Each structure stands twice: as structure tokens, then as C-alpha cells.
UniProtKB/TrEMBL annotation:
Full-sequence range covered: 8 to 242 of 277
Span of domain ABC transporter: 4-235
Keyword line: ATP-binding, Cell membrane, Membrane, Nucleotide-binding, Transport
Coiled-coil residue spans: none
Organism: Ramlibacter tataouinensis
Family: Belongs to the ABC transporter superfamily.
Keyword Nucleotide-binding among record annotations: yes
Descriptive protein name: Nitrate ABC transporter ATP-binding protein
GO molecular function, one term: ATP hydrolysis activity
Length: 235
């Protein structure tokens, strides 16, 4: 069975737009395999963020339905981790405490948090080391470069081992060097653990480098117009 399934999904942002037939996305029909790394690429305004809101249950489809792990989504998805274009670390928390955040608020970790704090910290430190942030645990976000903050954000998205990682242009604001370094780190993590990833990007090169399936969206109407499995040999 697919892990994520869109069944003829349409979304109009309000009734007026719907009455005018102006849907932000329409006829979205796709099935993502368990463990698939999917990239959604397309120009600005084509509906990528809208797609992401549907996949996370932050927006309900106007028509059609979205299923994750066999369940129809009817509210915000709890099994996911997310990272966005801006790092959005909490400024009053250290890097370590930022990364620990999902373990403090997402069940079943939350109820165990106090008792297992040392174990959770060790896990966070290990993950930070994997993205080159060893020694930064006690520093605050303002002491980190933008690229380092973004790495910490990705650790925060992964710390509770979500079944689904949602990435909305998380590399967009980084310099080319940091970006390619993070691509490699993410690809290694995915190859080890095979969680599902949905990456939204307007960078075709990024999508081909990272994903095993690329979905191309067109604007007006916001549709998926191409699905392509990437079988290039990769370094
Ligand atoms: P992308 O992420 O690819 O840039 P979006 O999903 O943000 O595209 O937008 C798709 C379309 O939906 C655009 O035409 C945009 O103007 C419209 N849109 C996005 N958010 C809203 C909203 N909250 N209300 C009305 N229209 C919206
Ligand atoms: P969020 O609550 O996640 O910020 P919004 O739906 O408010 O989501 O906005 C998502 C994107 O859609 C933003 O890029 C925003 O600029 C754009 N947007 C928001 N409202 C409108 C709108 N009425 N028309 C067109 N685009 C919009």
C-alpha cells in the first residue's frame, strides 16, 4: 500500500475562488511508496506550498482526499517532521534544546521526557555531530551561522524519527557550498533509515540529486504534469 496517497485532490482557498473555478491545485493524483524520497518541483506560485499544506493536513482538500499510512487526513499530521526555508530556531533555547523540542512535545516521547532526558540528549548530540555541529550544543542560535542554524533545524525535524519528513525549500537561502554539503548529509541519512521524504523546491538540480522520484508541477492550473523516477548512478 502507498504511504501517502492523493486521490484527485483539488483545493480552492475560499468559496469565492472556488465559485470562479480558481483552484490553487487541481486533479492531484499520486501515490508515494513507503520509503520514497519525492521531490515536487515547479515555478513559484504553481502550488507547491499548497501541496505541502494538504500533505500535512494543515489544509483540507476542497475535493478529493489525502491518505497517510492508510488513514484519511482530517487534521494536522502528527507523525511528521518539518523544515522550512527559514531555520526558525527558538532564540532563547540552546542548539541542543532546540533539537530536543519535538521530544518534549510529541507523544510518546513527551510523557517519557523527564525520565529519559539523558538518553534523548545523547541522541540529539549524535545527530548534531552527523551534520557537522559537534561542539555547538550549548550555543544559542545567534552564535551560529545561517547554514549551521539550518542544519540544526533539520536535526530538529529528524530527532523523533518521523515516518514522514516534509521539507519546504529548506536549502533555498544557503550558499552553494553549504547547500551541497547538506544535500549529501540528508541523502546519507535517508539511505540509512528510509523514512518518507517530500521535498518542495524550485531547483531541478536539487530534486534530481536528492530524490528517487521527481514530480513536476505546472502553474495555472496547478497540476502535476510529470512523474519521473531517477535512475542515474549517483556518487
Ligand atoms: P508555490 O508554493 O509553488 O509558490 P503556493 O502554493 O504558495 O505556490 O500558491 C499557489 C497558488 O495559490 C498561487 O496562485 C497563490 O497566489 C495562491 N494562494 C496561496 N496561498 C493562498 C491563500 N492563503 N489564499 C489565497 N490564495 C492563495
Ligand atoms: P501560512 O499560514 O503558512 O503563512 P498562508 O496561506 O497565509 O500560509 O500563505 C502561504 C503563501 O501564500 C504565502 O507565500 C503567501 O504570500 C501566499 N498568500 C497568502 N494569502 C494569499 C492570497 N490571498 N493570495 C495570494 N497568495 C497568498
Amino acid at each position: 500500500a502507498p504511504f501517502v496517497e492523493f486521490q484527485d485532490v483539488w483545493l480552492a482557498y475560499n468559496e469565492e475562488l472556488q465559485a470562479q473555478g480558481r483552484y490553487a491545485v487541481e486533479t492531484i493524483d499520486l501515490r508515494l511508496r513507503r520509503g520514497e524520497f519525492a521531490a515536487i518541483v515547479g515555478p513559484s506560485g504553481c502550488g507547491k506550498s499548497t501541496f505541502m499544506k494538504l500533505a500535512t493536513g494543515l489544509r483540507r482538500a476542497t475535493r478529493g482526499r489525502v491518505l497517510v499510512d492508510g488513514q484519511v487526513l482530517d487534521g494536522p499530521l502528527k507523525i511528521s517532521g518539518m523544515a522550512f526555508q527559514a531555520p526558525s530556531l527558538l532564540p532563547w533555547r540552546t542548539t541542543l534544546d532546540n533539537v530536543l523540542l519535538p521530544l518534549e512535545i510529541v507523544e510518546p516521547y513527551r510523557s517519557e521526557f523527564r525520565r529519559r532526558r539523558a538518553e534523548y540528549e545523547a541522541r540529539a548530540i549524535e545527530l548534531l555531530a552527523a551534520v557537522g555541529l559537534r561542539g555547538q550544543e550549548r550555543n544559542y542560535p545567534w552564535q551560529l551561522s545561517g547554514g549551521m542554524q539550518q542544519r540544526a533545524s533539520i536535526c530538529r525535524a529528524l530527532i523523533h524519527e518521523p515516518k514522514l519528513l516534509l521539507l519546504d525549500e529548506p536549502f533555498g537561502a544557503l550558499d552553494a557550498f553549504t547547500r551541497e554539503e547538506l544535500w549529501c548529509i540528508l541523502r546519507d541519512l535517508w539511505q540509512q533509515r528510509r523514512f518518507n521524504v517530500i521535498l518542495v523546491t524550485h531547483d531541478l538540480r536539487e530534486s534530481v540529486f536528492l530524490a528517487d522520484t521527481v514530480y513536476v508541477m505546472s502553474a495555472s492550473p496547478g497540476r502535476i504534469v510529470l512523474r519521473s523516477e531517477i535512475e542515474l548512478p549517483r556518487p
